[in-house]
User: Which sequence fits this backbone?
């Protein structure tokens, strides 16, 4: 069964985003709820710092992968074999607990006459990583955005990540890693292409 990918509103369509002051006030409420005093010296500037940090950590909501992937290249001298960018580091946040997900992504595609600039692939990982996520959804979003923009013969995405919601709270199992994959086109229909993808990642 294919993953269902939600399309978020584009930044220009968002009109009800809270103000900076509202965000800072929310942090003050959380500080009080946690049992501390937001008026003590060490915490006076914390709401402003947290709001600024969150703006950076969740900057993926202000960007659209389609815009990043818009430019492609056709002068590839007949190259039509796999293009793989592996070990792309990313930091995301679990949408259930808002704690970090730390991992790396491996992204490959089979060209169909056009190729992407390699930095664009890493940029797409960054865009989807800097949102509240589940790893499964992020894996599918990366594959879908490249598949729809480039129309390649196939896309393969693997993400390996550690979830702090498992390491810091709940079951508290540090060091456990979650792997997710999404395949489209030839990577989905031809097992040999999947094997090649996995082999190149591990080589």
Assistant:
């Amino acid at each position: 069964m294919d993953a269902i990918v939600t399309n978020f509103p584009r930044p220009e369509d968002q009109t009800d985003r809270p103000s900076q002051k509202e965000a800072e006030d929310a942090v003050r409420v959380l500080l009080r709820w946690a049992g501390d005093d937001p008026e003590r010296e060490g915490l006076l500037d914390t709401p402003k710092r947290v709001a600024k940090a969150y703006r950076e950590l969740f900057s993926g909501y202000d960007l659209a992968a389609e815009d990043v992937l818009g430019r492609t290249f056709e002068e590839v001298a007949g190259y039509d074999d796999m293009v793989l960018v592996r070990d792309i580091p990313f930091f995301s946040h679990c949408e259930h607990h808002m704690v970090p997900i730390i991992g790396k992504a491996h992204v490959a595609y089979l060209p169909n006459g056009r190729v992407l600039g390699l930095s664009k692939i890493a940029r797409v990982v960054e865009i989807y990583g800097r949102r509240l996520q589940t790893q499964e959804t992020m894996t599918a979003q990366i594959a879908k955005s490249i598949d729809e923009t480039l129309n390649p013969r196939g896309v393969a995405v693997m993400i390996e990540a550690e979830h702090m919601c498992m390491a810091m709270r709940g079951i508290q199992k540090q060091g456990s890693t979650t792997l997710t994959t999404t395949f489209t086109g030839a990577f989905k229909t031809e097992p040999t292409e999947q094997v090649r993808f996995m082999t190149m990642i591990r080589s």
